[in-house]
Every structure is written in C-alpha cells, then in structure tokens.
Amino acid sequence: MIKILKCEKKNYQFELNKFFLKRQGRLKINTNVVKKIINDVKKNGDKALIKYEKKFSKNIEIIPNKRNIEKSIKLLDPKVKKAIDFSFNRIFKFHSKQKFRNISYKDTLNNKLDYKYVPIESIGIYVPGGNASFPSTVLMNVIPAKIAGVKRIVMANPKLNGRLSPGVLYAAKKVGIKEIYSIGGAQAIAALAYGTKKIKKVNKIVGPGNIFVSAAKKEVFGDVGIDMIAGPSEITVVADKFSNADWVAADLLGQAEHDKNSQCILISKDKNLINKVKISLSNQLKDLPRKLIARKSLALNGILIHAQSDKQIIDIVNMTAPEHLELNTKNYKNIVTKIKNAGSICLGKYSAMAVTDYNAGSNHILPTNSSAKFSSGLSVYDFYKRISYINLSKNGLETIGPSVITLATYEGLLGHAKSVEKRIRRK
C-alpha cells in the first residue's frame, strides 16, 4: 500500500528524488486546454464563461441570487456557524500581529527617502468547491486582505452539487465579501484576470485550487499578480519511539484524504514505530469516508522513511521542503533550529496539522512542491505593494550627482548622465 525507504545506502537521496519526480510527472497536464479556455474568456467574456460553466459544472447562474444566499445561510447548522466565528477570531488576532512599518529616512544632505506600504486595490479570492466545501479557505484568504486594507475583494466559488456551500457563504458574509461569483476552474481565473461585462477584473488572484486552477494562475501571472502556484497538499511527520503510532497515522490520513495527489511522508529512526504506523494506516482507512482517495494517495505518493540519524532527518526535510511539517518527537528542539525549508512547522505531539487548517490562527495557504525553499505562506504582506518615495535637495543632487554621471557614462547610458548634468550645471 505505502512504500518504505531505508536510508542505509548512500544513494537514498537519489531514490527519494526519483520518488518526487514521479509525483511531479503525474501533476503535469496539457496546458493547451487551459490556454484555450483563458483566451476564449479573454476574447468572448461572459459568453465563453457561461459556456464553460455549463460544460464543466452544469451551472448557468454566474451571479448568485442574494435572497437565495441569505436563505442558504439561515439553513446552516448553528454549530458550524459558531465554529466559523471561533476560527475567524483566532485567525484575525494572529494576522493582526503582522504589523508593517513604513520607513522614513533623511540623510545629512537633506535628501528624504520613504518606503511605504500601500494596499493592493482589488483582490480575487478563489475558493475551491467542486468536490468539497471550504469555509476555512475563505477566512484564510480574506482576513489578511482585510487587515491590509484592500478595498475590493471578490470571491469565485464553484457550485457543489448544483448549489453554493452554505458554510462558504456564511464565512463570506462574516468577512464582509459583497461580490460573489459562482464560477470555477480555469474560466474563473481568466474572468478575474481579464474581466467580463459582469465581472470587473482584479489586480491579484489568491487561493488554492486543482491543477487546472494552478495552471491558469501560472498562465495569467504577469497580467495580474498571484500568491503562489499551489499544488496538492503535503505533510511530512517526523516521529520517534515515544510517538503514538495511531496519532501519526491519523495525521497522515488527514492529508491523504484531500486528493489522490496529496503527499504523505513519515520519517523516523525507529523501525518499530514505522511498522506500527503502517498497520494503523490500514486499520484507520477502513472507517474513513474518503478512503478510496486516501488509499490511492498513500499508494502513489506515500512513503515511510527509516532514517539512520538526526542529520539524515534534517537533510531529508530540507530537501523535501514540505508544505506541512510535524515534529512529533520528544526532543524536537534538537532539530528544529536546523530546519530551514517548510511552509509551517507543528511542534510536539499535541500540535496536529489539522488544527492549523482551521483555527490555530496561522494561515493554511502554504507553499507546495518544494517551493518552501524560496517562498512563504499567505500573510498580510501579500496584500500590500511597497512604494519608494524620493525627495532630493538641491545640495543633495549636486553632491551625489557627479557619482551618478560617472556610473551612467561607464554603463553607456548617456541619457541618464545628461538628465543629472542639466540639473547641477551652474548658470
């Protein structure tokens, strides 16, 4: 069911890399299909958008009826509403701590330099919905945007079984979204990026989605901003002889049930623990509603790694750069400072990754496919632009200008040099 890799041989990293490359190969799609959809929506607007909605979702209502939205929200279980409210408060409090600081600098020549954070004017939030309902994703995307001061926030959310999710609609109301479109897939990304008669384009698109959504975001990047190219979910759990095998197995299955392309990895120096987890995975799978998805995920992308040392564990984690990392060990402090690549890190046996998906307070929109080596999870900072303001004094220009003329001349940019010379030439 799930592969086991022993790190006794020197070429274990080669074998592990081969495992990752196979997964990446399975994630590739024919981008020509995505390009065709984007170009069609770009050219034909709402007509093309409705065509693809009918084809892929049997949906003809792009703008949901406000009365139906309120009716749907009223039918939502009060327990779910309370859980969404609870998550909202925790996520809001943590993200409110992500304060920015404008920089103001003045040198001895009275030259003034400022660096200011300016909110992006409009954001498109993509909330997946074709196979499940994700109110948590609404909160994770919109709360930091609101804190940053974004004025216009648009939500695109495909219908689930012919209707929008009551939980998603309630979460949208909670965060104050007034512009909702029941659209999905590559056509939704195209509509947000380029606009139609019914949908005004946005400046940046954020939020997770399937491989077609990710491919579309990659395609429109440059015409609009995006948060990241998010792939299927990933978890790496580091465990030891003190870890509870059933807990570890449950954590792995919590990711495996997302998607057949989800990646689940266990790393441990304890062979006995690895065997226990393997047995527990089989036992727990029997009662999992999404067991078919989870089983396929474990078979395709699951791996149990028997490491020989802490150094090997650190090397593997940094090489993998997982979206979610759990250090479910007694002495996690021994290795955590040496781990540089991970989207988020859960420390200790009680820090289940599943909690971070909902109400720990941190963000669950995280880098995947090893992109944690160079990027971070979604935050308030993603909804700002940073602008430099330069105010040079007469004395300042006359003092630093000659150096500019020298460098510009050296680079062969005489127009630059003349621009400065004209200002400092004595009359």
Report on the architecture of this protein.
With 427 residues, this protein is of the alpha/beta class. Helix content is 46%, strand content 16%. The longest helix has 19 residues, at 78-96. The radius of gyration is 25 Å and the shape is globular.
Task: Describe the structure concisely.
With 427 residues, the chain is of the alpha/beta class. It has 17 helices and 14 strands. α2 crosses α3, α5 packs across α7 and α16 packs antiparallel against α17.
Secondary structure elements and their pairing?
Blueprint: E1 3-6, H1 12-26, H2 31-44, H3 46-57, H4 66-74, H5 78-96, E2 103-106, E3 112-119, E4 122-126, H6 135-148, E5 152-156, H7 166-175, E6 179-181, H8 185-194, E7 204-206, H9 211-220, E8 225-226, E9 234-239, H10 245-256, E10 263-268, H11 271-285, H12 291-301, E11 302-306, H13 310-320, E12 324-328, H14 333-336, E13 344-347, H15 353-356, E14 384-391, H16 394-410, H17 414-424
Parallel strand pairs: 1-11, 4-5, 4-7, 5-6, 7-8, 9-10, 9-12, 10-11, 12-13
Antiparallel strand pairs: 2-3, 3-14
